[in-house]
Amino acid sequence: MNFNLRRFTKFAHELGSTGFTGALAVHMVLLTLDPGPEQLEIHAVIRQAIAGIGDWLLFPSLGVVLFSGLLAIGINRAFHDVGWVWLKLLFGISVFEGTLVAVHGPAQRAADKAVAALAGELDVARLATEHNEWMALWVMMSIAVRNIWMGGYGPGFMKRSVGVRPDEQE
Q: Which of 51, 31, 42, 37 is nearest to 127 (CA)?
Protein backbone atom coordinates (compact mmCIF):
# COMPACT_ATOMS: atom_id res chain seq x y z
CA MET A 1 0.00 0.00 0.00
CA ASN A 2 1.40 3.35 -1.03
CA PHE A 3 0.61 6.12 1.48
CA ASN A 4 0.04 9.48 -0.21
CA LEU A 5 0.30 12.29 2.33
CA ARG A 6 -1.26 14.84 -0.03
CA ARG A 7 -4.35 12.73 -0.58
CA PHE A 8 -4.60 12.02 3.14
CA THR A 9 -4.45 15.74 4.02
CA LYS A 10 -7.08 16.52 1.38
CA PHE A 11 -9.34 13.76 2.73
CA ALA A 12 -8.81 14.88 6.34
CA HIS A 13 -9.49 18.50 5.38
CA GLU A 14 -12.72 17.60 3.60
CA LEU A 15 -13.83 15.30 6.40
CA GLY A 16 -13.14 17.98 9.02
CA SER A 17 -14.96 20.61 6.96
CA THR A 18 -17.98 18.34 6.67
CA GLY A 19 -17.97 17.68 10.41
CA PHE A 20 -17.60 21.37 11.21
CA THR A 21 -20.43 22.58 8.98
CA GLY A 22 -22.57 19.64 10.09
CA ALA A 23 -22.00 20.53 13.74
CA LEU A 24 -23.04 24.14 13.05
CA ALA A 25 -26.17 22.88 11.27
CA VAL A 26 -27.06 20.56 14.17
CA HIS A 27 -26.51 23.45 16.59
CA MET A 28 -28.99 25.50 14.53
CA VAL A 29 -31.56 22.69 14.45
CA LEU A 30 -31.31 22.15 18.21
CA LEU A 31 -31.62 25.88 18.77
CA THR A 32 -34.92 25.91 16.84
CA LEU A 33 -36.21 23.07 19.05
CA ASP A 34 -35.30 24.87 22.29
CA PRO A 35 -38.50 26.02 24.02
CA GLY A 36 -36.53 28.42 26.19
CA PRO A 37 -36.33 28.72 29.96
CA GLU A 38 -40.13 28.45 30.22
CA GLN A 39 -39.68 24.67 29.91
CA LEU A 40 -36.50 24.43 31.93
CA GLU A 41 -35.96 20.66 31.79
CA ILE A 42 -36.14 20.53 27.99
CA HIS A 43 -34.09 23.72 27.71
CA ALA A 44 -31.33 22.25 29.88
CA VAL A 45 -31.23 19.01 27.88
CA ILE A 46 -31.04 20.88 24.56
CA ARG A 47 -28.34 23.22 25.87
CA GLN A 48 -26.31 20.24 27.08
CA ALA A 49 -26.76 18.57 23.69
CA ILE A 50 -25.52 21.72 21.93
CA ALA A 51 -22.50 21.83 24.24
CA GLY A 52 -21.87 18.11 23.59
CA ILE A 53 -21.98 18.66 19.82
CA GLY A 54 -19.45 21.44 20.31
CA ASP A 55 -17.17 19.29 22.45
CA TRP A 56 -17.35 16.10 20.41
CA LEU A 57 -17.87 17.28 16.83
CA LEU A 58 -17.47 21.03 16.26
CA PHE A 59 -14.21 21.63 18.05
CA PRO A 60 -12.45 18.38 16.98
CA SER A 61 -13.55 18.91 13.37
CA LEU A 62 -12.19 22.43 13.47
CA GLY A 63 -8.88 21.08 14.76
CA VAL A 64 -8.71 18.55 11.92
CA VAL A 65 -9.47 21.28 9.36
CA LEU A 66 -6.78 23.60 10.68
CA PHE A 67 -4.12 20.93 11.15
CA SER A 68 -4.70 19.31 7.75
CA GLY A 69 -4.83 22.70 6.03
CA LEU A 70 -1.55 23.82 7.56
CA LEU A 71 0.02 20.44 6.75
CA ALA A 72 -1.18 20.70 3.14
CA ILE A 73 0.37 24.15 2.79
CA GLY A 74 3.59 22.95 4.39
CA ILE A 75 4.10 19.83 2.24
CA ASN A 76 2.94 21.28 -1.07
CA ARG A 77 5.40 23.85 -2.42
CA ALA A 78 2.95 24.83 -5.15
CA PHE A 79 0.68 26.29 -2.45
CA HIS A 80 3.37 28.64 -1.12
CA ASP A 81 2.95 31.24 -3.86
CA VAL A 82 -0.79 30.95 -4.51
CA GLY A 83 -2.85 33.84 -3.17
CA TRP A 84 -6.11 31.95 -2.66
CA VAL A 85 -4.37 29.52 -0.29
CA TRP A 86 -3.25 32.33 2.00
CA LEU A 87 -6.71 33.91 1.85
CA LYS A 88 -8.19 30.50 2.76
CA LEU A 89 -5.75 30.26 5.68
CA LEU A 90 -6.79 33.72 6.88
CA PHE A 91 -10.45 32.70 6.74
CA GLY A 92 -9.58 29.45 8.55
CA ILE A 93 -7.96 31.33 11.41
CA SER A 94 -11.00 33.64 11.53
CA VAL A 95 -13.30 30.62 11.74
CA PHE A 96 -11.20 29.14 14.56
CA GLU A 97 -11.24 32.32 16.61
CA GLY A 98 -14.87 33.09 15.87
CA THR A 99 -15.94 29.58 16.76
CA LEU A 100 -14.18 29.71 20.11
CA VAL A 101 -15.39 33.20 21.02
CA ALA A 102 -18.86 33.37 19.50
CA VAL A 103 -20.12 29.77 19.27
CA HIS A 104 -18.35 27.18 21.42
CA GLY A 105 -17.69 29.30 24.50
CA PRO A 106 -21.19 30.76 24.73
CA ALA A 107 -22.74 27.32 24.14
CA GLN A 108 -20.75 25.92 27.07
CA ARG A 109 -21.77 28.82 29.31
CA ALA A 110 -25.44 28.47 28.31
CA ALA A 111 -25.36 24.75 29.12
CA ASP A 112 -23.72 25.39 32.49
CA LYS A 113 -26.28 28.07 33.34
CA ALA A 114 -29.20 25.85 32.33
CA VAL A 115 -27.94 23.01 34.52
CA ALA A 116 -27.40 25.43 37.41
CA ALA A 117 -30.92 26.81 37.00
CA LEU A 118 -32.35 23.31 36.88
CA ALA A 119 -30.53 22.52 40.14
CA GLY A 120 -31.95 25.70 41.70
CA GLU A 121 -28.53 27.35 41.96
CA LEU A 122 -29.29 30.11 39.44
CA ASP A 123 -32.33 32.30 38.86
CA VAL A 124 -34.10 31.34 35.62
CA ALA A 125 -34.20 35.02 34.62
CA ARG A 126 -30.40 34.92 34.21
CA LEU A 127 -30.60 32.36 31.40
CA ALA A 128 -31.00 34.97 28.68
CA THR A 129 -28.14 34.88 26.17
CA GLU A 130 -25.75 37.80 26.20
CA HIS A 131 -25.09 37.75 22.47
CA ASN A 132 -26.91 37.05 19.22
CA GLU A 133 -26.37 33.31 18.92
CA TRP A 134 -28.07 33.05 15.52
CA MET A 135 -25.90 35.79 14.05
CA ALA A 136 -22.73 34.07 15.28
CA LEU A 137 -23.84 30.74 13.81
CA TRP A 138 -24.75 32.23 10.42
CA VAL A 139 -21.49 34.18 10.21
CA MET A 140 -19.43 31.07 11.03
CA MET A 141 -21.46 28.96 8.61
CA SER A 142 -21.05 31.50 5.79
CA ILE A 143 -17.29 31.73 6.32
CA ALA A 144 -16.99 27.94 6.49
CA VAL A 145 -19.00 27.44 3.30
CA ARG A 146 -17.00 30.18 1.57
CA ASN A 147 -13.82 28.40 2.63
CA ILE A 148 -15.10 25.07 1.26
CA TRP A 149 -16.02 26.78 -2.00
CA MET A 150 -12.63 28.47 -2.20
CA GLY A 151 -10.84 25.15 -1.70
CA GLY A 152 -12.88 23.35 -4.33
CA TYR A 153 -13.67 25.99 -6.92
CA GLY A 154 -11.62 29.05 -6.03
CA PRO A 155 -8.42 27.99 -7.81
CA GLY A 156 -10.19 27.95 -11.16
CA PHE A 157 -11.50 31.48 -10.68
CA MET A 158 -8.41 33.05 -9.22
CA LYS A 159 -5.17 33.78 -10.98
CA ARG A 160 -2.63 31.03 -10.51
CA SER A 161 1.08 31.52 -10.24
CA VAL A 162 3.21 30.05 -12.97
CA GLY A 163 4.69 26.68 -12.10
CA VAL A 164 3.48 23.40 -10.72
CA ARG A 165 -0.25 23.11 -10.20
CA PRO A 166 -1.30 22.13 -6.66
CA ASP A 167 -2.95 18.94 -7.90
CA GLU A 168 0.08 17.74 -9.90
CA GLN A 169 2.75 15.49 -8.45
CA GLU A 170 6.23 16.92 -8.12
A: 37
